[in-house]
């Protein structure tokens, strides 16, 4: 009880000094809890949506998948006779056929895409009674003929649609127009999908290209009949194994699995960044308690002199840490819920609607936040607490401070050097690996070991690095600069820990910058060397035939190349089989992509009953020029194709592709199974590049879901995509950098308190308030630049090693983004200046006489 009272007294006596550490705990816990609440809320949203849109029992084609569309662009369907048999099953209240397709684009009269901008699908189908589970018509009426359509209210609001507006639906079967006669509102949260409805006959004809077929059958159970019972009755009625029959739960679970995998990626990525913030926060807490212990040396000595044991002193510090952890974690849990709501609002603004009505805070979320916050805080405070317990009563009463353990420092240095050396060796080994998969594991080990090693030897490096930075930067500030240098060197362990917090975040920034820049440079280099086509046309969906025809008829083009991925099973002479498919392209693709071959000529692969394979595949399965491979086309017949070329796989584009001609594909695939183009290429007639580019853009105005790019556009798009990804990562890493800045502020603030008498003496002998504030700001800048120098150097080493592994996958160009690196380094100086504002202000306000009289 005495220990608890002492700890409580000390905690509240130093609450101002604990504040920034509490903020670090708060931010870290908030990020973890916010991630959990956000992902749980999204899962709840989708669970409710899938449950509301699923019938009691659903009958689907056996090959149907909830998260994909067949290669021919038309949804799998079943005959209307299945509906007739299913509705005769015992226990059926009513049965109806449904038509649904996600391989559509809906545009308005100005050819603007009415779909979601967040990647959510556009869904077209027929209006059924089952839709009344999740929607209600709030304006107009359901479609009654081929020229009528109904849209969801969210899409109508986003795109300012109203009754009477004309929409054009683009499907693989063709384009068709209809006017809006109704608007339906979701009863549950719609995460962002755009939905359009037609009458059944129109949906069948325009989406499936035929009549008398449905994509699934929805059955409602009669009163007193369970879904499982109805499922068995339906199976008995339509036959077992011919179709997929699922209860509402099974159908919802299948839909949820695709979303769940995506959500897990988001969840664990964000938790990873939260872990980085926790790691950075550890240094802040260690520094805080180390300095608090040092400032309470005499107090600890008195406690020991009157009978307190080492364990009691140790326990007193750990109790303070526990209080800090509990306080920061409780606030962090609340802040996490607020963060989740903020993310939901942000996603809604971007087009992915998430309602706070579905806000989900599981009981485990606050528990996880509290446990993490408290455990991390107590572990971080353990070393300072242990040092506090080692203070002898006499040494403490003489105000000797915490003991400097030379042996411990030596051991620490040796361990740090060993870990750094082992990490450097691992990075060297990874850089010289023969396979990227093997090298990536070694790279991971090297990153972890060098990071830990640098953290441990930070105090050893502080002396030399700080002196170098000071020689370059602080000499211009005369005596004030020299005093700032000495202050930074006064406690190398403290400087090392403070700089390490900043080092971690900046090391990751530098590493990712190097990797991102190298990927862009490598891909650009590959495009320059390999791509011979003038224009590339592609989108998020396969190119529908009517859009492909518009491309083919564009004036000013020398040739147009079709490119399709075909589902097929390939068997080699040694008996190996895989279902990785083949690529069907026109012979002009050999001009559009300059592929090197290790045997034969690529043009020969586009001959009759011929194909090519990649060099890695050929080596692994002993395939040589002239061998015959068995290719079983899904939905078509089986072919015996001769290997006419072996392409070099030391590339990025189309690595491992197995080419055959469009003519060969048509021979073995029926017309209704031939997929639309995945991508198309076009080359302009000589001297007509600008005119052809403009004409091609004009031809594709009717199809806004596809983009026309020349090589310059394509490179810029690639750069922008990687840049957006990096910016998102930098945004998440900003949390760790914010925590590191708090660490610098806390270290300086406590250092000012520790040097109160010294500051008073300097002021007494003539130092002005301005000079004092400048000294503290320069000290902060030096510490920040020390951390930045270590972090950027370490990160560039990681990035260069990662690029060596990427070179094994064809990304051979190493590019250091010097503007980014230099900008981050300069930015670190401003971070140091910002961190010193409050401590410098407080130091400048000290009363000279009171400061000198401080005990």
What class, by secondary structure content? alpha+beta
Mean pLDDT figure = 86
Query: What gross morphology would you assign?
Result: globular
E-strand count: 26
- Total count of domains: 4
The low-confidence parts are: 399-404
Q: Count of DSSP helices?
A: 26
Provide the gyration radius in Å: 34 Å
Query: How much of the polypeptide forms β-strand, as a percent range?
Result: 15-25%
Estimated helix fraction? 55-70%
Q: What is the end-to-end distance?
A: 29 Å
Largest sheet: 8 strands, mixed
Describe the structure.
With 855 residues, the chain is an alpha+beta fold. It has four domains: 1-54 and 252-403, no CATH class; 63-241, no CATH class; 459-534 and 710-855, no CATH class; 542-704, no CATH class. 57% of the residues lie in helices and 16% in strands. The strands form five sheets. Strands 4, 5, 6, 7, 8, 9, 10 and 11 form an eight-stranded mixed β-sheet that branches. β22 (628-633) and β23 (638-647) form a beta hairpin. α2 packs antiparallel against α7. The longest helix has 48 residues, at 248-295. The chain is globular. It starts with a helix and ends with a helix. The relative contact order is 0.11. Residues 399-404 have low confidence and may be disordered.
